[in-house]
Amino acid sequence: MEDDRETVRLWRVNRTIHELVRDRGYQVADDEINIDLETFKSEHAPTGGSVDRTKLNFFTEHSQYSNQRLFVFYSMERNVGVKTMRQFISIMEERDIQRGIIIWADKMTSAARKVIDAMRGTFHLEDFEEAFLTRTFGSGVTGKPGVTFAKEIVRIMLGTHYKKTIEKLNNYIDKVNKDLLHPVGLALVNPVKTAFLFIEVEYY
């Protein structure tokens, strides 16, 4: 019974994260979002046991920027610690991927969050709790008004946060250029234009 509940939860989480990733402009096939519960069970829990989360991991690239790739990683450990973060980042390093999302079941330890903070200069890392993704989108019937509303609210929240972050970055770069670099004939290139792959200073 517990395995069945977990399978349903992970089916919802799997659909949600694929929708979120596609909304951000990454390549996601319709059948990856529209997979029904029975198909999900047959693929990921064929014997009726628990779902192997490692088989839910996936890679994708941005529709507009082919050099901007993303790795979505499901933690096998319910409480994410440094060991899990090392495993997550190791895979990203092997695949030369700078953006990653880790999905966890119960808890992100403070040590794991420190890893995310410490790696900000190298990787763009995000984390999502399974329960959050399930609560947000979790009716299993996308046509229900409440579900549609909840989905739109989360998209607005995530989109607004991104826009505010980019706006702050743009303002900071403009200030640095105006106050420090332009007077000496240099300019800091906005990393948004290079898909955050590098920071470049050029002659102005």
TrEMBL record:
Keywords: DNA-directed RNA polymerase, Membrane, Nucleus, Transcription. One of its GO terms (cellular component) is membrane. GO terms for molecular function: DNA binding; DNA-directed RNA polymerase activity. GO terms for biological process: transcription by RNA polymerase II; transcription elongation by RNA polymerase I; tRNA transcription by RNA polymerase III. SUPFAM superfamilies: Eukaryotic RPB5 N-terminal domain (SSF53036). Residues 153-200 form the Golgin subfamily A member 7/ERF4 domain. Residues 4-92 form the RNA polymerase Rpb5 N-terminal domain. It is found in: Membrane. It comes from the Eukaryota. Signal peptide: none annotated. It holds the Pfam family Erf4. This is Probable 25 kD subunit of DNA-directed RNA polymerases I, II and III.
